[in-house]
DNA sequence: GCAAATTAATGATTTATTCAAG
DNA sequence: CTTGAATAAATCATTAATTTGC
C-alpha cells in the first residue's frame, strides 16, 4: 500500500512550511494536522498502546488525510506516551522550545551563600540570587501556599505548589546586575 | 465580583502613572522594570517552573524592588512560559529530517511539539473510528508487521507487535468530532 | 497637549489533561 | 476505577499603550 514514500514529506494542509527540505527525502512521516488531531483524540480517549488491529484500523482511517503507515501509528503512540510521561517527570526545567537550548549545565554554579537584603537601596549593585538550595533534601514538605495570606489581595486561591520530582533542578546561581 | 484587595489598593486616581514610582497601584501586581528584568534573566537562564523554595527566594529578592508576592512569581513563570511557547508555536515544525532510520530504538524522533495544535480546530467533521470490533476473537493471529515493506526508505524494521497484555483495552468506539 | 476610546499586554482564574497511588 | 498532584491550555480581567477628536 505504501509505495511512494516521496509523498510523505510535505503535506499541504496546515502543516507549516518546513522551510527548504522538501519532498525529496523520503525521510519520515509528517503527519497532517488532521491526523495529529485524530491521534490526539484517541490518546485523550484513553488509548495508549493500540493493538495491532487497532493500529491497522487507525492507519486506514487516517490514510484518508494523508499518507500514513501502520508503523507511524505505532510510533506515534509509543512516542506520545513516553513523552507525556517524561514531561510529567521532569517538569520543572523543561525548556520546551526546540530552538533554544538552554541547558542547565550552562548557567549553574552553586555556592551556599544566601543573600540577605536588609541593605538599603537598589541602586547600582550586583546581586546574586541563590536558587536551588541544593535539592538534597530538606525533609520539609516544600509545599507553599502561594496566595494564602488573607491579607493579600484575594487569595482564596490556594494552590499548594509542591515540588516533588522536579527537584532535579541543577543549582542555579545567577548573577544579576542592574546598572 | 469585587477585587477585595488589601491596603495597597487604590482604585482610580491617577491612572496613567507611568514608570518611575510604580509603587502602590492596585488591582493587580504591576512589576517594576527591575523585577521584570530579573525574572526574564532567570527565565533566560533556563528556569521554567520554579520550585516553591525558588519562588520564595525570588520573591524575597524582588521585593526589594517593589511589592511582590509569591504567587506573582508563580504566575509570571506560568504565563511567560506559556506565552513563549505560544509564540514559538507559530513557527514550529522543524522537521529535521536527515535521519531516516526509523527503528524502534531510535524512534523517539518526532517532536512532541508538532502536536502542538491541540484539538479543537475548526473543521466540521465527525468521524467514528471503529476499533475493536466487538467480537472478542477473530482467531486471527493479530500479529502485524508494522514496518515491513522493504520498499520503505530503509527500514526493514519489523516489529511484530503482538498484543498480549495490552489486550485489555475495552472495545473502543470513538466518536471524534472536530468542529 | 489631553483625555476618552480603543487596542495590546499581561496578570490572575478556571478548566482539562496526565500519571500515579490507593 | 477512583482520586490527588501538578501542571499547561484556555480564558477572564485589568492595566498600559496607542489612537483619535478636540
UniProtKB/TrEMBL annotation, chains A, B:
Top-level lineage group: Eukaryota
Subcellular location: Nucleus
UniProt entry tagged with the keyword Transcription regulation: yes
Keywords noted in UniProt: Developmental protein, DNA-binding, Homeobox, Nucleus, Transcription, Transcription regulation
DNA-binding region(s), chain positions: 24-88
Family membership noted in the UniProt record: Belongs to the WUS homeobox family.
Name this protein carries in UniProt: Putative transcription factor homeobox-WOX family
Record organism: Lupinus albus
High-level lineage: Eukaryota, Viridiplantae, Streptophyta, Embryophyta, Tracheophyta
